[in-house]
Each structure stands twice: as structure tokens, then as C-alpha cells.
Amino acid sequence: MTRCLTTSGKVRLLPSAATPRPTRWPPLSFHQPAISPHPGLSSAMAIQGVEQTILRDPALFYWILFPISVVMILTGILRHYATVLMNTPPKSAATLAESRERHALLRGVNLRNHACSVLDRESFEARRNYLVSGFRSGAFLKDPNNRGQPPANPMTDPAGMEAMMGMLKGNMMMMIPQTLIMSWINAFFSGFVILKLPFPLTIRFKSMLQTGVMTRDLDVQWVSSLSWYFLNLMGLQSVFGFILGSDNSANQMAQQVGMANPAAMMNPMQPGQDPDKLFLSEAENLEVMEHFCVLNGVEERVLRNFARR
Amino acid sequence: MGTPTDAEANGSDVISALRLSQRAPEILGHGPASNAYAASSTSAPDTAEEYGRIEQLLLACLRTGDDQSAQACLDRLSHRFGPSNERVMGLRGLYQEAIAKDQLALEKCLVEYETILSENPVNVPIMKRRVALLRSLRRPFDAITALVQLLDAIPTDAEAWGELADLYQSQGLGSQAIFSLEEALLVAPNSWNIHARLGELLYVCSSSSDGDAARLAGKSVQHFCRSIELCDDYLRGFYGLILATSRMLDHKYAAESPSDPAVPSRKTIHHLQSFALGRLENIIQSRSVDDQHWASSRSDLIAAKELLNRFAQSK
């Protein structure tokens, strides 16, 4: 294989007939520009200069680009099914008191949101007093005697332990394949330039598209194999949506987003949370609530809206 | 024969339940009916809709006495979800109650439910079955106790609140029934049928209680109005509104010029009544033409016609 660097800044890879194997890029030694201590200077030159041409071996496509994509899709599908298999359904309440603790908060929220369309003032006041005093006195708690004590250590609490195991399993499903594939790609395919984007990009994308290729002069349009892996990692969600349906668990990025934003998928009674505090804040919400009733004047409203027609 | 969605929409009525259960062989896919459908249903998708349909079919078959098809449905459900699934347990209990020959067999079911509940006290379908069984064994007070216990644990179950209201009403405990229906409405505030049901309940209570009658009748009118506001061709809403307004007019509950602007005047009530009469007439006319579609509510139509006749005669 011969390699030559022309004076006009063109990089050529000339695959020789004797070596049909994929070309390895970058070379062990690479020509550095003579005077360019500042990276911005040389890259500016690369953008403004004549278009770079790299003759790529077509085998690059069949042996690197294609395998990486296929492997990424297959791991996604595998991860989806593994998650489905290992997923334990949320445990339902074991005793009546526990179930009451879970639903009492919802009852308060229901009263707050819907009282205006159902109740008149008297029955609203009665319900509010009942719920507020119940929340305050801890009557809805699973065991009112334990009130005010710090929540049990999740390590000793079997329910907390289970939740932690579930989280651990989810994390493992994410970590293991990612580590394996990353190291596999690093070991076999690192350093190849495999793709040219058909549109120009600014210099900022260089770190995203050319991971593993340590050149400053290479145009941003060229994509390295490691970057192709990252692009697949981030961008295959719609492909998985097409194959597995919309609520799949194939994409780890989605899971990570979910992790980072737990408020979005919080159910009211998470294991480490103290229901007593939730009840107290709900009691406060109920107390400050102003009551009105849509049933007041509904007779005139019906006549006005419907009878004229 | 109507389309399946038609039949499902009117599932509470016996005729459509019968139609639905007659489709059992083709849905279950082992009958002489249509081989094409059978072939497609052996590879039927393993979806929630499919099993929801089988559950519906099971209920329809039990209503119409097709116990064999019901058994087949039940087998299929318990094959898929396992016999220890709570919902399957509830359906199995329902099936056993349905095929029970005498009082003794029903008592046996009750004992069975109690053993299940002693193992897992929060098995909601079985709890509900137990309440229903106690009711059909004519032990309403036990049923009420059991239902109150259930609602204490799960206070956001509109179905159970509705059932409790019905039980209370059957025992003549009006204000308790009103409370229960209001709780059901708090869970599902926009359901016009529960609003109309509450209106009916208030109307009934206003006829029995003395001191509070005016207030109850007024509230009844309000709830019927709300029901009409939410669904503007709801026959029961108009029917009830006519009855409630005529009670208010007959007993002179509404003042000529009330001090509180929120309280409707006698004139408004009168307008409401004539509006409801007109609309009810329209509804009857349009539904009598389209007879087949409204087959399930034919009795409602007859009652409404009779009410209109009564009003025509009194004038």
C-alpha cells in the first residue's frame, strides 16, 4: 500500500491490488503542517482550501460500516427482549392498609381537582375536613405508630432491596452491552475513515464525527468508525420504534434521559419517600383551596346554550 | 347482525349480549362457522384487545346461558395468564357462581372467596365478587360492610362507589347513597350518566324526606342540567329534568324572585321544563325512525313517550 501527501493538501490513500483488506487510518506517522501551532489556523485552512479527496476501499463499507450498524440494531433488539424478560412488575399492595396509604393521596388530589364540578359547599367542606384531619393525624398511614421516624434503611428493608435490585438490573442491561461493543469496536475498527457526509459542516462537529482519528487537517465531512458507532448509539431510536413498536426499551439513551429526569416518571409512592410528608403537603393544598361550583347557575346556562337552538 | 363494535357499545342489553354470545364459536375458532376466521384466530395476536374481547365474550356467554363457551373462554384466559392471576380468579369465581345450582353451591363459593382473601387480602376482583355474592345471597348488610372495607382500602374506585350507592338505596339509606354517588363523581367528574343517576337519587330522596325536600329537588334539577350539558341528547337526563322541574313547580319550591341569584326563579324552572319537553319529543321522533340502532334503549323510549302523553293530557 502506498500513501502520499500532495503539496496542495490533498490526502490520497492508494489501495494497492495486493492488499484488499480495509485500509487503516491514520498512518503510524503523519505529516504535520510545518508552521501551525494554533489548531484553528490549520483547520481554517482545511475548510477554505481545495476539497479533500480520500479514495476509500469499497471493502470499508462491507466490513466496517455495515457490520457496525447491524450489530447496533441487533444489540438494541436483544436489549429490548432482555429488559422485557428481566422486568419485574411493580408489586401491588400486600395489605389493605398499604393500599389505603397508596390511594389516599390520590383521593385528596381528586377532591381538589374535581370538587368544583360535583359538590356544593356543604359536602365539599365535610370532605375537606375529613381528609385534612386524616392527613394531619396520620390516619391513612400504613402504620401510624412509625410516624415521624426516619424511613428505614433501604439496605435492610426487603421492599427497598428489591427496588434497588431492579434498578441495578436496569443499569446492568445498559452498561454491559455498551462496554462490550465499545471495546469491540475499539479493538477491531478504530481509526478508519469510513464515510463522507454529503454536506459541509463547521469545525465544531469534528470531535463528534472524527473520534479516534487524530488529524487536525481532515475535513469535518469525513466520519470515523468510532464516531459512526456513537451516531448509531444516539440515532437509532426511530429504527427501533419501527421494528419493536413505540414503547420499546432498546435505546439506552432514552433510558438515561429517563434516569436524569426522575420527576417525569415518578409514581406517588416511591420506596424512599415518606408518605407522611406527602400527606401533610396535600393537607395544606386542600386547606388553601377556594371552592366554587359549576352547578351554580347551571339552569340558566343550559337554557341559554341549548334552548335557543 | 350489527358490527361487533355496535354490539359491544350496547353490551348492557340482553339482545346484543345474545348476539355477541352467538358469535362465540367463530371468535373462539373451533366451530363450524367460518374456517377463514378460525385460521386467522389461531394465529390471533397476543394483544390486550384480543383478551379483552375474550373476557367480554365470557360475560356475554354467562348472561345467555352458554356455559360451554364460557368455560372455553375461561380456559383460554387462564392458559395465557395463569390461574393465579387476580382477574382470572375473579372471572373463575363469576363462572362458578353462574353454574351454581342451589344456595349450597353459592355458599361454597363464598367460603372459597374467603380462603382466597385470607391468603391475599388485596385481591380486588375477588373482593368485588364477594360483595356481589353476598348481595345475591340476600345479605345486603354484610355486602355493605364488605364494600365499605374495600373502599376504605381503595377509595378511588368509581365502580365500587356506584355499587355502594345502589346498595344503600336498596336499604332506603338515601343520604348515604347520595354521598357514595358524589364520591363516584369525584373520581369521574364528567360522566353524564352518573350525574343523571345522582339526579334521580336526589329526586327520590326529595319525595321521602320532609324538611329537606326543596333543597334536594333543587340539587336534582342541577345535576340533571349538568348531565344535559355534558351530553345534549341524553334521554334519561331530559326525562329526569321534566320530573324534577314538575315537582319543583307542583310543590312551589322555587320562589318567584329569589334573594340569592344562584337559585333559579320559578320562571327559569318553567322554561327548563318546556325546553326539556320539546327536546324529549325531538329525541323520541328521531330515535323511532332509526329503530334498529336504538333497539337496546327501546324501553327508555316507551317510558319517555308515556311521560309525554301524561303531560299532554294534563294540559
TrEMBL record, chain A:
One of its GO terms (biological process) is protein folding in endoplasmic reticulum. InterPro entries: EMC3, EMC3/TMCO1. The keyword Membrane applies. Keywords: Membrane, Transmembrane, Transmembrane helix. It is a multi-pass membrane protein. The chain crosses the membrane at residues 60-82, 174-195, 226-245. The keyword Lipoprotein does not apply. It is found in: Membrane. This is ER membrane protein complex subunit 3.
Automatic annotation (TrEMBL), chain B:
Pfam families: TPR_EMC2 (PF22890). It is found in: Endoplasmic reticulum membrane. Residues 112-206 form the EMC2 TPR-like domain. TPR repeats lie at residues 158-191. Gene3D superfamilies: Tetratricopeptide repeat domain. InterPro entries: EMC2-like, TPR-like_helical_dom_sf, TPR_EMC2, TPR_rpt. It comes from the Eukaryota. It is a peripheral membrane protein. Keywords: Endoplasmic reticulum, Membrane, Repeat, TPR repeat. One of its GO terms (cellular component) is EMC complex. The keyword Amino-acid biosynthesis does not apply. Component of the ER membrane protein complex (EMC). Belongs to the EMC2 family. Part of the endoplasmic reticulum membrane protein complex (EMC) that enables the energy-independent insertion into endoplasmic reticulum membranes of newly synthesized membrane proteins. This is ER membrane protein complex subunit 2.
